[in-house]
Amino acid sequence: MENLISLVNKIQRACTALGDHGEGSALPTLWDSLPAIAVVGGQSSGKSSVLESVVGKDFLPRGSGIVTRRPLVLQLHKLEEGSREYAEFLHLPRKRFTDFAAVRKEISDETDRETGRTKQISSVPIHLSIYSPNVVNLTLIDLPGLTKVAVEGQPDSIVQDIENMVRSYIEKPNCIILAISPANQDLATSDAIKISREVDPTGERTFGVLTKIDLMDKGTDAVDILEGKAYRLKYPWIGVVNRSQADINKNVDMIAARRREREYFSSTPEYKHLAHRMGSEHLAKMMSKHLENVIKSKIPGIQSLINKTIIEIETELSRLGKPIATDAGGKLYMIMEICRLFDQNYKEHLDGVRSGGDKIYYVFDNQLPAALKRLQFDKQLAMENIRKLITEADGYQPHLIAPEQGYRRLIESTLVTIRGPAEAAVDAVHALLKELVHKAVSETPVCYFPKLS
Ligand SMILES: Nc1nc2c(ncn2[C@@H]2O[C@H](COP(=O)(O)OP(=O)(O)OP(=O)(O)O)[C@@H](O)[C@H]2O)c(=O)[nH]1
Predict the structure, then answer these.
(1) Is the domain covering 2-317 a CATH 3.40.50.300 domain?
(2) Any idea where the Dynamin-type G domain is (predicted)?
C-alpha cells in the first residue's frame, strides 16, 4: 500500500517536469486526476506549523505577512529506521539537502526567482521531497494563506488572486482538503471552512484541523467542535497544539513539541477522552491512510487516463515525423531531403504519375476555348467596324501601302476582349497548382512544413 503513495509521488514529479500543473497545460493533464491533500486556511491560522509538525522538522520560511507565495508540493517518503534524513527539490535534481535551514532558504529563493522580490504570488508549484524515518508517506500541498486585505506592495487584486489559486486546487474532485482553523477565533469566521464548504458542500473530502487550542480563552474549550457536535464534518475534527511563537524563538525542537502536544491532550481533563485521535502524529497517520484508500479507489481511472494519454501522444509523435537532427549538417541534410521528396511528389502530380495534372490540361483544352467561343467576335470584326477603325486610325493621311495603324488598333481591341477568359484560365491553373502543392506536402512523409495558406 505504501508504494501506492510513492507511485503517485513519481507521477506528480513527472507531471511537473513536463509542465503539467493541471488546467491550462498544453498537454492532456494527468495532474488533475491525481489525488492530493491541499492545506488551506487564513493567514497565521497555523498552516505552516501543522505542516512542520507532520514532518517533524523546521523547514518552512517564516516571517510576517504573506510568506507562502507559491504552492509547495511536499512529498514525504518514509525511510527505514536509522537512515539519514534529507530533502530534495525537483528543480535541483542532484542536490541533497541535509540541513533544513538551507531547505527553508531554497524555498524562499525559488519563490523569489519566479515572482521577483515582490509580494506577488505564482501558481507554479515548488516540489520538495523529504526522505526521513520520522515521516509517513504523504503528499501535501501548502497554499498561500487566504487574506482579506492587500498589504503595502501588493496589488488590490491579491485577495482575489489568492482565493482563486486556492480554489483552483481545492475545487478539483480529487483534492482532499485539510482546512486549518484557529481555535481562538470563532469558527463561523474561518476562511478555511467557508471556502471548503463552497467547493465541497457535503464535506466528503474535507478534514477539519483546529490549531491553537492552547490559546483559547480561559473557561472555554473546543470539546463540542472536536466531538463533532458543533460544525459537523463527515470526518472527525482533529485538534493540534503547535509551537507558539515564543517556542519558535527559543528553538524548541519539533520532537519535543510533539511530546508536549501528546502530554497536553492526555493531561487536559477536557480532552483526555479524545487524546487518542488528537495531535499532529495522529493527523499524519490518518491522512496517509486516507490518501492510500483514495489512491486505491482511483487507480483504474488513473491507469486508463495514462494509457489514453500515451496513445494520444504517440499519435501526435508519429504525425510529427522523425526526430530532427541537432547538428547543423544533419539539419541541412534533413531539409534537403524533405525538399527532394516534396519536389518529386509535386512533379509526379504534374506529370500524371499521381492525380491532378490532368485538370490543368482540361483548363486549356476545354475551359479557355469554350470561353473564347462565347465572345462576340462577329460584331468586333464586322466589315463596318473594320472600315471605321482603319479610317479613324490614319486621320487625314491617305494610307500608301497597307493601313498598318488600323490593323494594330483592330488587333489591340480584339485582344482586350479575350483578356477576361485568359485571366480566368490563369487563375484556374494557379488554384490547381496550389492544390497540388498542398497534396504534395501532405504526401511527403516528414511533415515539418510550415502551414501553407
Ligand atoms: N500557541 C500556539 N501557537 C500557534 C499554534 N499554531 C500556530 N501558532 C503560532 O501562530 C503563528 C502563525 O502560525 P503559522 O504556522 O506561521 O501560520 P500560517 O497559517 O502558516 O501563516 P501564514 O504563512 O502567514 O499564512 C506562529 O507564531 C505560530 O507559532 C498553536 O497551536 N499554539
Answers:
(1) yes
(2) 31-300
Q: Which atom of ligand 1 is nearest to the CA of 43?
A: 25
DSSP state of 449: P
Residue 156 Cα, ligand 1 centroid: separation in angstroms? Answer: 25
Distance 117 CA to ligand 1 centre (A): 23
Residue among 39, 48, 51, 66 whose CB has most ligand 1 atoms within 8 A, to mutate: 48
Pocket around ligand 1 at a 6 A CB cut-off: 41, 43-49, 67-68, 145, 211-212, 214-215, 240-245, 248
> What pTM, to 2 d.p., does this model score?
0.66
Residues paired with 177 in a beta bridge:
38, 206
What number is the ipTM of this complex? Answer: 0.97
The per-residue DSSP string of 388-446 comes to: HHHHHHHTTSPPSS--HHHHHHHHHHHHHHHHHHHHHHHHHHHHHHHHHHHHHHHHSSS
Beta strands 138-142 and 175-182: pairing type? unpaired
Is the pLDDT assigned to residue 15 strictly greater than 80? no
Question: 224, 254, 294, 334: which is closest to 85 by C-alpha?
Answer: 254
For residue 183, the ligand 1 atom closest to its alpha carbon is: 31
What is the number of residues in the chain?
453
pLDDT digits (tens, 9 = 90+) for 300-312: 888 888 888 888 8
One-letter amino acid at 86 equals Y
Kindly list the domain boundaries of the chain, sorted by start residue.
2-317, 328-448
